[in-house]
Amino acid sequence: MARLTRDSPVISQNSYTTREIILGDETKEVDLTGKKLLIAVPSYDGTVPVEWLTNFTELVSIAYRNGVGVSIFARKNSSLIPKVRDEIIHTFLYMTDFNYLMCIDADIIWSPMDVVRLLARSDEFGVMFGAYPAKKDTAWFFPALQKVDGKPVTAGNLLKVKSAAAGFMMLNREILMDMYNKYPELHYQAAGDFVDKKHKVCAMFTPIIEDGHYRGEDVSFCRRLEKAGHGMWVDPDIELTHVGSKEYKYSYRDFVLSKFKEGLNK
User: What is the distance between the alpha carbons of residues 37 and 173, in angstroms, rounded to a whole number?
Assistant: First the structure.
């Protein structure tokens, strides 16, 4: 996979097709024309599963038909995941003019329409996740739900979260720029030819110590989002596979419903 630069070609088209997207119990027509999406993948050895690449190719085709500009940025050769995620955001903010950033880890198998679902609502909900299972033989998922009176907080079919794993995450430029500006104490000068030397990198994913506990980069990033006043949401109708020694796939919606027998707030 090639590294994205400002001069990299962007797939786009003036004519478009308005698509119907199923969002929970609703079917909505959405016009994605003019959106510009960067797909970012951290991959230590620069490889992804065949299914990952196949789905990306299909996503490019869908984007082309709908007037969406799309390209890919692969960050490889680093095992420092918090640093890699920070550099991906830096690249997005200062080395592209894309409006939306979709982070998809190399060990996630996903569907192109999962990305389209998130992109369709990325202006209204600036931080959204798809939930993928932990690499366990029993179903367990990463999102920590926001609750009121013991029930999840919802917006349509979306569930509000306090934190979630960053391996399948949609972010818009406005929120990331706000985060960059609100955390100047996290700015540092990075080395390497893949960063814009005119702007420092913001260590948004640097792990924190909270109440005497070490928090991973995903939770730490979510804590900073919350402190900056940004809500976070997960789409329970997105089903993802987590690849390890085998493929781990469970239904997140079924997992949530099993925890709340009376159902979800509407």
Answer: 10
* CA distances in angstroms from 22 to 7, 64, 118, listed in the order given: 35, 20, 11
Say yes or no to pLDDT of 185 above 50: yes
Is 66 in a helix, a strand, or coil?
coil
| Mean pLDDT score of the chain | 86
Q: Using an 8 Å Cβ cutoff, are 185 and 256 in contact?
A: no
Q: Is 27 exposed, middle or buried (CB count within 10 Å of its CB: 0-12, 13-18, 19+)?
A: exposed
**What pLDDT, on the 0 to 100 scale, is given for residue 132?**
95
Q: Report domain extents, the chain.
A: 19-259
- Predicted confidence (pLDDT) at residue 10 exceeds the cutoff of 70: no
Q: Are strands 19-23 and 26-30 parallel, antiparallel or unpaired?
A: antiparallel
CA distance 149 to 215: 26
From CA 201, how far away is CA 75, in angstroms rounded?
15
Which of 3.90.640.10, 3.90.550.40, 3.30.360.10, 1.10.10.10 is the CATH number of 19-259? 3.90.550.40
Decide if pLDDT at 8 tops 80: no
Tell me the mean pLDDT in the region 218-227: 97
